[in-house]
Amino acid sequence: MKRKPIYVELPIHTDIDALWKATQRPDLHEKWDLRFSSITYLPKKEGEPQRFSYQTKIGFGLRIKGWGESVGSYQAKDNARTSSLHFGTEQKISLIREGRGYWKYKPENDGNVTFLTQYNYKTRFGKLGSLVDMLLFRPLIGWATALSFDVIKRWLENGEQPWAQYTRFFTHWITAILFAFIWIYHGLVPKIIYQHPAELAMLQKVFPVDGQTAIILVMIIGALEVLFGLGWLFYRKKRHLYVLQFIAFPFLTIGAIFAAPEQLTAPFNALTFNGALLILSWIGWMATQGVPTAKNCKRKQGD
């Protein structure tokens, strides 16, 4: 099975020497590249390629340890630079066995430096490994490469440290996934699947309708909540959703207290629960400003 190389390209408004330094020095490289936890250069003699070792944390205390060697060159014709790379790992738990690629740094007339990479690799575990790579791993590592490129762009252009960008990125998405779960669960389980008596009772206290109508209305409300929860996963402009929550949570809290004021003495009642969600919405709202994204990068040559 022929594997399509991973390609990422992004213009960065910076000096080529600053970009070269940030990508070639191990202590700087490991700060912005999501694919590596640590990079260590090994001693070398003059004229030899620069060899290095790297580690990547994959969770649950496991690390992938690998080797690599790079050669940097300077092209006087267009002032571009290229760094070729050969890498691999002997660890059997790694899907990647061995690969090759390059980085290219091309100064443009508008003051930008076009920073691009293309690389490919061989996998372990036969046809199963190839299938996992095609369906999951290759899209994931390509996305991580593109996200890392956007992080270094913001670092060199705006001075924002990579750790701060990644903190905001993961805060943004963890919050969005949490809200998706909350809205989908509360719409699906107590309203659509079970039509919980408490849901029906609160609705009938606010709107005096018969039991069958109350069931239909509760299910409609549940469906709307599920759709809103899905919006947290697929709608790109998350700040719009936060605005809706800033409006919705106070009204939901007042409505719940009006329908069942006795619940204020219960643990985890509407006041404390919705109040916590309102504060979490504010945290998420703040985290959406300037979130790095892989979508800023070109992923195919010629795009």
From TrEMBL:
InterPro entries: DoxX-like. Keywords: Membrane, Transmembrane, Transmembrane helix. It comes from the Bacteria. The keyword Isomerase does not apply. The chain crosses the membrane at residues 173-194, 214-235, 242-260, 266-285. This is DoxX-like family protein.
